[in-house]
Amino acid sequence: MKKYKGLVSLHGSAFDLNPGSTDKKVIEVTRYRYLQSIEIAKKLGALYVVFHSQINPLLKVPRIRQMKLNNQIKFWQDLLEELHDINLTILLENEYDDNYKDLLYLIENIDSEQVRVCLDIGHALAYSKLTLKEWIIGLKSHIEYIHLHWNNRQNDSHSIPSDEELDLLSEILIENDITPIITLEYRVDDIVKEVNRVRKAFDKTII
Questions:
Q1: How far apart are CA 150 and CA 158, in angstroms?
Q2: What are phi and psi of 47, to 5 degrees?
Q3: What does the DSSP 8-state code read for residue 22?
Q4: Which domain covers residue 132, as residue numbers?
């Protein structure tokens, strides 16, 4: 990585962690793993570290759902007090989120320039009935980063987007004056050719 001149980002720990938990031990483990991820990001010279939103759409009781969101806001605010002197941006990524509103609530109430949104296109397609346009307009200025992959809206297959799908996403971003960093989250045989194809579609974004 020392010879790599491009932008570096890191996906942080995710599985079995919950920054909105009501269990102090779960919070302790989550905090430990998140700080561990951040330390690795610092050593790699990364500018971004991505964490899942950990929002559970199956929670339908409003009081409990709100409590977990508020717990998560406190978690991040407390953690940020330890990170104020590092050049690193935290990105919260939608995973199983069925809409953008809870993620927006988190971002707005954490209220830090150090915490932004990583919009995962494939997750939005697979786990939400909202259109990509609704997601992008809803989160708009908070979107700094995009994980790009596609699917048939049935499962998270991490499939290659077609030219038409790239054009659709590009048009929405341009219409809303959003120029995020874009990471490709799918496998290809010729990465240079694929980057050039995507770069052509997103000529006003950073890839």
A1: 6
A2: -100, -15
A3: S
A4: 9-203
Q: Dig out the tokens for 57 from the structure.
A: 């759409």
Report the CATH number that the domain containing residue 93 is assigned in CATH: 3.20.20.150
**C-alpha distances in angstroms, 171 versus 160, 175, 176?**
18, 6, 9
| Per-residue pLDDT reduced to its tens digit, 135-149 | 999 999 999 999 999
Spatial CA neighbour of 31 closest among 12, 47, 10, 46: 12
Percent of the chain with pLDDT over 90: 91
In-domain check, residue 3: no
pTM for this model (two decimals): 0.95
The count of structural domains within the chain is: 1
The reply to whether 96 falls in a domain is: yes
CA–CA distances in Å: residue 124 to residues 2, 20, 151: 34, 21, 10
Is the pLDDT score of 84 beyond 90? no
Domain presence at residue 44:
yes
- The answer to the question of residue 4 being in a domain is no
Helix (H) or strand (E) segment spanning residue 44: helix 24-44
Burial class (CB in 10 A: 0-12, 13-18, 19+), 90: buried
